[in-house]
Amino acid sequence: MLLIHCPYCEEARPEVEFAYGGEAHIARPLDPSTYSDEQWEEFLYIRSNPRGRHHERWRHTHGCGRFFNAVRDTVTDVFETTYKAGEARK
Amino acid sequence: MSGFRLADGGRIDRRTKRSFTFDGKARWGYAGDCLASALLAQGQMLFGRSFKYHRPRGILGAGVEEPNALVTVDRGPGRRTPNLRAPSVALHDGLTATSQNRFPSLRFDVVALNDQFGAFFPAGFYNKTFMWPRAAWEKVYEPIIRRLAGLGDSPTTRDPDHYDATYAHCETLVVGAGPAGIAAALEAAATGGRVFLIDEQEEIGGGALSDPAQWAWLAEASATLAAMDNVTVLSRTTAIGHYHQNFVVAAERLTDHLPVDAADGPREKLWRIRAGEVVLAMGAIERPLVFEGNDVPGVMLASAARTFALRYGVAVGRKLVVMAVHDSGWRDALALHEAGVNIAAIVDLRREIDPALVEAARAARIGCYPGYAVTKVTGRLAVDGVTIALAGVAKGQKLDCDAVLMAGGWTPTVHLWSHAKGTLRWDDSWGAFVPDKTHENLRCVGACGGDWDFGSGLTIGALPAPKPLHESKAFVDFQNDVKARDIGLAVQEGFRSIEHIKRYTTNGMATDQGKTSNLNGLQIASDVLSRPVTEIGLTTFRPPYTPQSFGAMLGHHKEALFQPLRKTVIDDWAADHGAVYENVAQWRRARYFPQGSEDMDAAVARECRTVRSAVGVFDASTLGKIEVVGPDAAEFLNRMYTNPWKSLEPGRCRYGLLLGEHGFIIDDGVSARLAPDRFHLTTTTGGAARVLNMMEDYLQTEWSDLDVWLTSTTEQWAVIAVQGPKARRVIASLVEGIDLAPEAFPHMAVREGQICGVPTRLFRVSFTGELGFEVNVPAEHGRMVWDAIWAEGQKHGVTPYGTETMHVLRAEKGFIIVGQDTDGTVTPDDAGLGWAVGKKKPDFVGKRSLARPDIVAPGRKQLVGLLTDDPQVVLEEGAQIVADPNQPVPMTMIGHVTSSYHSATLGRSIAMALVAGGRDRMGETLHVPMPGGVISAKVVAPMFYDAEGSRLNG
């Protein structure tokens, strides 16, 4: 079981307190109606699926309830860092 | 009868006898024996039958690697455990063990005929053979295969035991308490940190238990560890897996080593241990050698024979031949000789052998055959001799013996290292993979780390033999009956990756996970392919290290604790009034309230008629509820839901439809605006948590500029639906401060006031099509208010009704249930809810997707009503719909039935369905092919009762 550092609680807590939230830094467009079908498809479904560093969202569901971002290595599952929502991509 | 008890030696207590039974026969052994040693001491060589060919099999190893001697231990009803390895079963008084996989008896087995026809059972046999004729599969092949397949019989009654579970934290966890593990634990303990030392055996010591010279040291070290407050030593505890960040799960067996009547408390305890550092000291497992007849009972690992002699005081035979390619075989032979076991000969394929070993063997009058190989083992139920030949190919000569020991070198036990994603590197001197790199704070010590002196040896696949590979019965995987020639065949048929070879031949796929077979299989594949083993790779190790009981995995999470059962504050009342329950999400809900001898249909029909003609009360407390508060609350909801919310006046309600960003319906519910900055949202019972999570997601990550607070209030409010033409009369005398007159309190309005003297949020809403109210009161007053409404309702002929009646009533009105009439691919328009989509809104979640080409394309499945031609036939929910029932199979299915009931109000069946292009098919007759015949039904609008909605005004 992973230990995940919540940047809001500033504590490492067991994985069961958290919920995974998919790839991070995919901002919803301010006006989706301006998006072409291809752009909208990209936003909805196309993900980077890297081998290695992956920016992803987690929610401390059974804790503070906050969404935050993390960089996790998809090969080793090691978390490089976690940071608050809204902070720049690390 | 070959094995016997040596005159002295071993760690057994010769003054304490233990009686037990094996296959129903009374046997005995000593305290400190394992089942295998006690049986060997009495001359038992035959322990089981093999999986595929039912060949007679004996003991191979002395530890958890044992593939052959699987037994079932019976400790009473529900306490029968199959597939235990005889060397790992501690002996106790009254132990009841039986052999497995034999029919009718161990000595005489009819399925052993398979063995005679072995040429017809090659690798991939099942995949190749039982393909034709297709009809024979169900009736002939499958029943036979099922009769023969499987190892042991699982218990058929409930396990009466309970299982403990705990968490632990420590600075250092040492797995394996052999000399290397004990040394690591002592070293770590000296620093003062918390240390766990765990070991799977009955007592700690590992390999030292088979070496009397180390017993004094072992006793001293054990005492030192036991005396330290910061050290926890767990024996009979198997580390079954290493998970992320040094999280190790271990199962401790607490009572199985005790007589049944002395067993008290939980049977096993599952430890979840988080360690700063994990030290693996799991040792190494000796490899068998691959030669003709290497599975005859009496052929075993040299290390096993050594353990039986030195730890248990048992000689495995009266005249032993050792087949070695490794120094450790000579060392074991010499140790056995010293313990009084008669070693007739040591055969070694190597010509160059450490002269000191050869000299010592000759001094012990052991025949030495350097450069020779065993080419054949004779005997069927037990060894009676071997044929050996120079280099395996010259003319053979016979040696008399009743046991053969194999010394094929050593394989470090890297299972947990691999669980932790540690990499491995090939080590030529070991002829095996050893640990390389890891990103965890993890290290291997002793033999499992490649750091142990077993001497040196050859790395070899199959021994050279006079017969070609494809004619030999030389086994690689004993438990799954995989022969060297099966691996050859797999390669010949084009399999190259070891992962594919493994699955095609089943090498390493039995319950022992190939502890003795993986390396030999790999080496043989490498030989046949003429490629180095490093290019072929190693299969992946996965938890558990050894088979584990389900009970330990489950721990306390069973029966009432398996998952929480949520009950409303009105649940007790429902129980007192004979409710039949159903579970919805985690909630227990009253499904119907039968009276007298009513069945469900009769009860539901009566409840429906009463609601339509008088009044019914329904516990709707399970509805998900979210309080949305803040200056931007209306703006937030406007963006989340399809409907417009900004224009909603305080005091009014609105049906809200929630889509995912993909444009499909994911939830719905009626919500009320209580104040300009306050909404009372409702969601579906099952969707409450999901909807709150989604809203938090948007609020926190997309629209963090909005000033809104979301609070789950599902359990804060009890909700009592009062529905029917007399609903107003029932609550009128109980409500204070709210004008219930229709013009003052119209449909889809909300009022705050008091009921029965407690605050209420009173909704005038209807999920039945009747005049209706939903009385929200703080949960702690829910039962009191329900009782008051129930008492008042008596004057008006009230009935309680359950979820089944609720479903029928809403279906009569064509109201959807998200998740029943929708399936995650249904848009608002598909569901006929286009009216709920705010056309003028610039944006909401999912809006852009509603303009995607495939969403606006014609022919989508749309929600329609179905009326069967025969009004008494109720369609089956989920049944597929076709346009032409006479078309050839497979038919083109154009949709399916989503909701279907008998409507007492209408005196006929009704159904809803998702049908391709459904709204263009009004009046068409469609067909539902069922096992009993085809049912025809007419497509109608999904609205069966009071289309104009006049009854809402009751």
Measured distance between first and last alpha carbons of chain B: 93 Å
Helical stretch count of chain B? Answer: 23
Q: Which structural class do the helices and strands of chain A define?
A: mainly beta
Full CATH superfamily name of the domain at 285-409 and 455-462 in chain B: FAD/NAD(P)-binding domain
Fold-level CATH name of the domain at 285-409 and 455-462 in chain B:
FAD/NAD(P)-binding domain
Number of H/I helices of chain A: 1
**Corresponding CATH architecture of chain A:** 2-Layer Sandwich
pLDDT below 50 for ≥5 consecutive residues: which ranges of chain B? none
* SSE order of chain A: EEEHEEE
Rounded average pLDDT of chain B: 94
Instruction: Assign the CATH class of the domain at 285-409 and 455-462 in chain B.
Output: Alpha Beta
Please give the domain count of chain A. 1
Distance between the terminal alpha carbons of chain A, to the nearest Å? 24 Å
Average predicted local confidence, pLDDT of chain A: 96
Q: Note the main sheet of chain A.
A: 4 strands, antiparallel
Q: Share of helix among residues of chain B?
A: 10-25%
**Main pleated sheet of chain B:** 7 strands, mixed
What does this protein look like?
- The complex is a heterodimer of chains A (90) and B (954).
- Chain A has 90 residues and is mainly β.
- Chain A has a single domain (3-84), classed as Folate-binding superfamily (Folate-binding fold), CATH 3.30.2270.
- Chain A has one helix and six strands, in the order E-E-E-H-E-E-E.
- In chain A, the strands form two sheets. A four-stranded antiparallel sheet of chain A has the order 3-4-5-6, with no helix packed on it. In chain A, strands 1-2 form a two-stranded antiparallel sheet.
- In chain A, a hairpin with a 5-residue loop joins strand 5 and strand 6.
- The longest helix of chain A has 9 residues, at 37-45.
- Among the domains of chain B are: 4-132, 2Fe-2S iron-sulphur cluster binding domain, sarcosine oxidase, alpha subunit, N-terminal domain (Ubiquitin-like (UB roll)); 163-281, FAD/NAD(P)-binding domain (3-Layer(bba) Sandwich), CATH 3.50.50; 285-409 and 455-462, FAD/NAD(P)-binding domain, CATH 3.50.50; 467-537, Arc Repressor Mutant, subunit A; 624-667 and 678-713 and 825-849, Aminomethyltransferase beta-barrel domains (Alpha-Beta Plaits); 857-954, Aminomethyltransferase beta-barrel domains (Elongation Factor Tu (Ef-tu), domain 3).
- In chain B, strands 9, 10, 11, 12, 13, 14 and 28 form a seven-stranded mixed sheet that branches.
- At the A-B interface, helix 1 of A face helix 19 of B.
